[in-house]
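Design review, sub-item: ligand-bound model
Attendees: FS, YL, KQ
YL presented the inputs for the dicarbonimidic diamide complex:
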Amino acid sequence: MPSIAAQPYEYELPIESEIALIVIDMQRDFLEPGGFGEALGNDVELATAIVPTVKRLLEGCRAMNLSIFHTQEGHRSDLSDCPQSKLKRGRGNLAIGDPGKFGRILVLGEPGNEIIPELAPIPGEVLIPKPGKGAFYSTDLEVQLIARNVTHLLIAGVTTEVCVQTTMREANDRGYECLLVEDATASYFPEFKQATLEMVRAQSGIVGWTATTDQVLEGLRSWKEN
Ligand code: C5J
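KQ shared the predicted structure:
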């Protein structure tokens, strides 16, 4: 059976599997100086470093006609979908909804909330705005995956231990075979990224698998040829 050389063991790709790539929150708010990520005191260069790799993964998956999803963390302009707990948390220079360098922080439709141009969705790809950390919470992601008969999810994006890991755990509980792409995900805290990778694949893959972009693309090629 085609597979991806992954950890903790081969990630099998049955011929009949439907595979989707989900790219989490590669938006200006988390990647550019002056956005929400930096307002919270983070060094965004740690996150921007993965952009070329995510682009390569995205283009490889596009070439193989996989379903592609992008998520975008953001709130309605009246912040009615933002819990008080989230509004108060962080204590950075700027809070959610405040005017920032690229419009209001983490508000849907504002320039800072857009996916960065290098990774912007193209026609046919699905953009999932999400008010929470997990991409299944209060969104139609599950409906969209079911409509496409998706069974396998390749996951990339930022930040590894927050929105990426939350989404992966939500997907795992819903029965999706999940693989986190090691070099296409980043954290502002490299040690948290490393810990997440280890958590995911511990106990024989309790949350799923991890593999590099090269391993993913190689495995997908063998799956496509079958
Ligand atoms: C955070 C995210 N870290 N996309 N969001 O607030 O991980």
